[in-house]
Design brief:
Number of strands: 0
Protein name: DedA family protein
Largest sheet: none
Family: Belongs to the DedA family.
Number of domains: 2
Helix content: over 70%
Pfam families: VTT_dom
Order of helices and strands: HHHHHHHHHH
InterPro entries: DedA_domain, VTT_dom
Distance between the termini: 19 Å
Organism: Streptomyces sp. SID7499
Length: about 180
């Protein structure tokens, strides 16, 4: 069942087993199938330097090789997206804007200005920002913070997050599925 690791290896064109994020994500999908992909995506939401653009196509590739079904891939990755988003929503609600900015400034590969721009976008567009933000790299995770800080009603947040995440996840999972080992 080293199919997913083969896809990750193809990313680097290196005959050695993949390391880094691609190897880690491939290992989770290989070992745990859909729940592993969901866990990786939940972590990607909480720690934005982890790229869904690697995890989701690897999950699609695994589905193309029979490791899991497309339905399972989409269910688990969308569930992971929502769980991760709700964690950030909760952190934003509990700690508020100032503490979130202090925490965000310490994360590698994340700019504090990204959080400011996301807050401004949320202030202008409200609920639309949640739905559309789930389909925009960087904003995908960050959009949960102002929603929590502003205490957007949780059922509305979860519904919009689920819909936006399902669209994003479907595009990238299906890309990995259709492209197979060509990506």
């Amino acid at each position: 069942m080293h199919l997913t690791l083969s896809a990750a290896r193809a990313l680097s064109a290196d005959p050695e087993p993949p390391g880094g994020i691609a190897g880690w994500a491939a290992g989770l999908v290989e070992a745990f199938g859909g729940p592993g992909a969901g866990a990786a995506i939940a972590l990607e939401n909480v720690f934005p330097p982890l790229p869904s653009e690697v995890i989701l196509p690897l999950t699609g590739f695994a589905a193309s090789q029979g490791v899991l079904s497309i339905a399972s891939a989409l269910f688990w990755t969308t569930l992971g997206s929502v769980v991760g988003a709700v964690v950030l929503y909760g952190i934003g609600a509990v700690f508020g804007r100032e503490r979130m900015h202090a925490w965000w400034a310490k994360l590698p590969l994340v700019k504090a200005s990204d959080l400011v721009r996301t807050e401004e976008w949320f202030a202008r567009h409200g609920t639309k920002a949640i739905l559309l933000g789930r389909m925009v790299p960087v904003f995908r995770s960050l959009i949960s913070v102002p929603a929590g800080v502003e205490r957007m009603p949780l059922p509305v947040f979860v519904t919009l997050t689920t819909a936006g995440s399902l669209v994003w996840n479907t595009v990238l999972v299906m890309a990995g599925y259709w492209l197979g080992d060509q990506w």
